[in-house]
Amino acid sequence: QSVLTQPPSVSAAPGQKVTISCSGSSSNIGKNYVSWYQQLPGTAPKLLNHDNDNRPSGIPHRFSGSKSGTSATLGITGLQTGDEADYYCGTWDSSLSSWVFGGGTKLTVL
Amino acid sequence: QVQLQESGPGLVKPSETLSLTCTVSGDSISSYYWNWIRQPAGKGLEWIGRIYMSGITDYNPSLKSRVTMSLDTSKNQFSLKLSSVTAADTAVYYCARRISGRYDLDVWGQGTTVTVSS
User: Fold this and answer.
1) CB atoms within 10 A of CB B34
2) Which residues of chain B lie closer than 8 angstroms to A33, CB-CB?
3) Among A11, A101, A53, CA closest to B43
4) Tell me: the pLDDT tens digits for B23-72?
5) Alpha-carbon distance B8 to B59, whole Å?
6) Does the first or last residue of chain A, that is N or C, have fewer Cβ atoms within 10 Å of its Cβ?
7) How far from A21 is each of A64, A66, B56, B68, CA to CA, in Å?
8) Does residue A52 register a pLDDT over 90?
9) Widest Cα–Cα separation across chain B
10) Interface with chain A: mutation pick from B2, B36, B103, highest number of A CBs within 10 Å
11) Exposed e or buried b for every residue in B50-68, given b needs 16+ CB within 10 A?
């Protein structure tokens, strides 16, 4: 059971928008910045978004993050088939003194 | 451009100690937090622990009794030891970097598969 809660799967058609939620608590999301990771099949996770809503160099503007209270959201617009991947949220949990991840969300682009 | 590369045995016997090394290239190992994360086949990511340049460590509470991390600044490497392994420790193991003051893992290694089996 993951400390952060994500939906197991989401789906949408090419060109559409999808959001992935990440729910936590006051000791993790409520206190610290959230980051998001994209894991394409057979590859290592890649940082997609950090400090709630900052994109590393090379990440398209189609990917955006937000945070409110103890929840965070990743939004992806203009969906492409190449976006099919597993997406994870993550942050530091100050009570556990431990990094925590969500269980991951599988995105299917229909 | 910083790169991380995991290395170590791909097969470990039950009850023995898993040992992995992450080699950092393109930057100094100083001034960062160095992390280990693992992922069993078909499952999510699990953080194992981290070590800072000072040698200070934090471990996942569920693994703490079996984990030891260390740094070798002369080789620009950091290492993971996981003792008393079982089949449940079979996973892809990743090393990753966290910049001090930030809350993300910005650079990851490609991962190495470790199987626990007799």
Assistant:
1) 24
2) 102-104
3) A101
4) 999 988 887 999 999 999 999 999 999 999 888 999 999 999 999 999 99
5) 20
6) N
7) 12, 10, 33, 34
8) no
9) 43
10) B103
11) bbbbeeebbbbeebeebbe
